[in-house]
Amino acid sequence: MLTSKQGIGMLRWCGSLGKEKLVRRTFVLLLIGAFATPSFGQSRAELGANPNDHPFQCGAAFSIMAKVYQEAGDTSKSEGYQIKFDKLVTEAEAIFEEAHKSKGDAEAYMQKHVDLLAAVAERDAKLVINFARRCEERFPG
Questions:
Q1: To which H or E segment does residue 114 belong?
Q2: Among 70, 82, 88, 86, which Cα is nearest to 139's?
Q3: DSSP, res 37
Q4: What confidence tens digit (pLDDT) does each residue in 11-61 have?
Q5: How far apart are CA 34 and CA 36, in angstroms?
Q6: CB–CB of 104/93 below 8 Å?
Q7: Does 91 have pLDDT greater than 90?
Q8: Residue 93 in contact with residue 34, Cβ under 8 Å?
């Protein structure tokens, strides 16, 4: 199970990227942090049709938002998103256990969602912000 201590480090958002991609992702993080205000963006990003995927989808969003706020120096918001992420990791692992899959499989599936959402963030930070808002509606506090 991913814990708060392991936190975002276990989810390799930057992974083994080249310097150029690392700089680009850092820039995207800054953009998301700069524009993550309630008035930014009017379109809504929607969760997938399979409710069993929602903890993975939103866990990825919360992981990225925790990293954004960590990079921006807002530890309070970063910790809040980290707590939400930790709760969803536990829920995601339970879903996989019910399907007789391992926690390692759940972690790999969560990582896949983080990687996909990170790629989306590089193209459209606004979409990721709106998606995180949708996830907050689905998984409040």
A1: helix 103-123
A2: 88
A3: S
A4: 544 444 455 565 556 555 555 554 444 433 444 556 666 678 899 999 999
A5: 6
A6: no
A7: yes
A8: no
- Alpha-carbon dihedral angle through residues 35, 32, 122, 71, given to the nearest 10 degrees: 150
Q: Which residue has the tokens 């391992």?
A: 102
How many residues are recorded in the chain? 141
Angle between helix 103-123 and 75-98 (nearest 10): 130
Instruction: Let me know how many helices (H) and strands (E) the chain has, helices first.
Output: 6, 0
* pTM, 2 dp: 0.70
* Structure-token pair, residue 26: 């850092």
Tokens at residue 128, please? 């990721």
Q: Tell me, what amino acid is at 44?
A: R
- Split at pLDDT 50, 70, 90, the class of 3 is very low
Residue appearing with tokens 């912000």: 129
CB atoms within 10 A of CB 79: 15
